[in-house]
Amino acid sequence: MDVLAQSPFQGLLTYPLGHSLQQSQQLGLPGVAYFSDEVLEDEMRSWNHTWQMVGRELQVQSSGDYFTYMVGNQPLVIIRTEEGELRAFHNVCPHRGAQLVSEQGNCKQIRCPYHAWRFDLEGNLLGLPQAERFPHLERSTVQLRPARVETWGGFVFVNLATTGESLQAYLAGFSSYLEQYDYAWGDLEMVDSWSYDQPVNWKFLVENYLESYHLSTVHGKSLSCFDPGNIQTATVGRHYQICVGYASQESVKQHQVFAGDPQRQSYQGFIFPNWMVNTARDMVSIFRLMPLSATQTRFEVLIYQTRSQQTAFSYDRDGFRSQFDRVLQEDFNAVRLLQASVHSQAYGVLQFAAGLEDGISHFHRVWREALDSGRND
Ligand code: FES
Ligand SMILES: [Fe+2]
């Protein structure tokens, strides 16, 4: 049964059980936004119109290199063609829907493992066994369904909507903000990655990142490399810049995580809908969120260094991970406190701290707009 068809989706965002996402006076989102499967379905539909950061160009350097990625609940494959172009396709066979490829690899052509239909790297059908069994098949029209793919700074982005704004327009001024970083984004190579599955809604993790009010209570010791009095934020399109100053030289020295120079800034921020970037003297770290359910989220940590950073600041995997892990566990513990309350009648936001929690209101505005456009699909 189509749950969405049962719930009135015109105008108001109303969900079963009388929950409504339409709020006049109240700040924040109601608790239902953080546990409802219906809300998550709408969110995932809205993600079909967003540019999603799926990986690095380095992962698909040669003709036939490919990797797979899930945008929300949509499986995709990103592949390099013989002409050296990047293509993205839904990772679904047109014959009967089987998954075509898994993880990553290299291939001369894409061959479905179920009945062996074969496609070239542009997604065109090359051949199929017992073709005489398909007398009415117009072979020249059979193709893998494409998605758009573009790049910035060596990152590969895909958008399931085949028309619409460019990646450049989507990123608005955010790319030029990040380009103030001392190193070229295109030169970054992944040096480490790991992930956490947390029993919280993905939006709480975004909101926690967007506010600096919790720094002194939650990270009193672990993040004292930053000067909480020297944080400038700005909205840029759908995104949110967070430019953070470092604390004293001494305090910086004690922290490998987010290491920097008190004379400089750390360019950080949130790119709607699901990733965050942090620059430091010695590396770039990225957090990327994948909702596994309405109340379960995979939090990925991706660490990048340029070659020159790898030489100057050799990566100490165990030492770094344990420091980073400490900070993140502090955040996860805090966010789980929010998730624990979402069914409470008393759950809500009384006020946001001026200047410290503004990013959350911005995120909620953009989130609502995205849901509205997703519902017009
Ligand atoms: S499902 Fe792919 S060939 Fe049949
Ligand atoms: Fe935090």
Q: Write down the overall geometry.
A: globular
Integer count of domains:
2
DSSP helix fraction: 10-25%
* Number of beta-strand segments: 19
Number of helices: 10
Bound molecules: FE2/S2 (inorganic) cluster, fe (ii) ion
Mean pLDDT: 91
- According to CATH, the homologous superfamily of the largest domain is Naphthalene 1,2-dioxygenase Alpha Subunit, Chain A, domain 1
Classified by CATH, the class of the largest domain is: Alpha Beta
The CATH topology of the largest domain, please? Naphthalene 1,2-dioxygenase Alpha Subunit, Chain A, domain 1
Q: Whole-number radius of gyration?
A: 22 Å
Characterize the structure shown.
This protein is α+β, with helices and mostly antiparallel strands and 377 residues long. The protein folds into 2 domains: 52-169, Rieske [2Fe-2S] iron-sulphur domain (Rieske Iron-sulfur Protein, 3-layer Sandwich); 180-366, Naphthalene 1,2-dioxygenase Alpha Subunit, Chain A, domain 1. The chain is built from 10 helices and 19 strands. The protein has helices at 3-6, 37-47, 167-171, 174-178, 202-210, 215-218, 249-253, 307-312, 317-339, 358-375, and strands spanning 14-15, 19-20, 52-56, 65-71, 74-80, 86-90, 104-106, 110-111, 118-119, 125-127, 146-152, 155-159, 189-198, 226-236, 239-246, 265-271, 275-279, 284-293, 296-305. It has a 7-stranded antiparallel beta sheet with strand order 3-12-11-6-5-4-7, with no helix packed on it. It has a 7-stranded antiparallel beta sheet with strand order 13-19-18-17-16-15-14. A hairpin with a 2-residue loop joins strand 14 (226-236) and strand 15. The radius of gyration is 22 Å and the shape is globular. It starts with a helix and ends with a helix. The relative contact order is 0.15. Bound molecules: FE2/S2 (inorganic) cluster and fe (ii) ion (FE2).
